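Can anyone check this?
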Amino acid sequence: MMHTKPGLWIRCCISLAVLSLATPVFGQFAYVANQFSNDVSAYTINAATGALTPIPGSPFTAGVFPVSVAVDPTGKFAYVANQFSNDVSGFTINATTGVLTPISGSLSAAGAAPNSVVVDPTGKFAYVANAHSGNVSAYTINATTGTLTPIPGSPFAAGAAPNSVVVDPTGKFAYVANANSANVSAYTINAATGALTPIPGSPFAAGAAPFSVAVDPTARFAYVSNANSGNVSGYMINATMGVLTPIFGSPFAAGAGPLSVVVHPAGKFVYVANNSSANISGYTINATAGALTPIPGSPFTARAGPRSVTTTPRPR
């Protein structure tokens, strides 16, 4: 059920964030954060069929109420945001078997209700959106051990109920969807330290209860699903400053309760999971302007309560 008051709505939907899925760079393994069993399921991926086979020893213990999982671009480390224990679990990934081994001192403190974790494209930094403390925890990643060390100045202020964090493909900018303040915080990333600096004009206005943010692979456009207004905000990204400018025609209509947005790795399409209308909105992206046009046949039928949408990566 959708609530019209964002503050009430965000608390409801956090409890419904059942799982997150991530795959290492070579696509050998898949990992799922299981919020109600406090662990991470691990699978090998059959390269021919895509079938998942549980990895021996799986599931692997995480913190309390794990809701998001990310793998570094080398496929060596996995990180899990634990919403109720306010920390991040770190694991090394066995390159042959996919087995997860806790990193020594792997529980790294985060803010209140960490709801999203991401690793930057260089694999040097990790960022966590803390929904109940209104900020973003930032860490450097030890390239040998995977240990997380807080970046000086962390946590960095965000809006109310930051629910999703993403780093653009260039590694220059980070964007955070603030569900209860109806905007998007934007930051430049210090390439040496990983520190976040607010971009001039940030935060940028979005719709009601922006819940998920994604950037296209060319780093020219950003899209935000607005859960309580049933649409998608689109922005052009200034390549130098990272400033967000609304795309002509934005916001673009979606279904009811859009909770997740993803850009296809070819940069041609956007997909949105509409939690309350049980379907998936699909769009083509105008390569010049970034505007979204519904794909014929959209929205596409899903099951009850679609919570997250993703696509397979571009072949390497």
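Reply from J.R.: I decoded it. Residues 104 and 218 are 37 Å apart (CA to CA).
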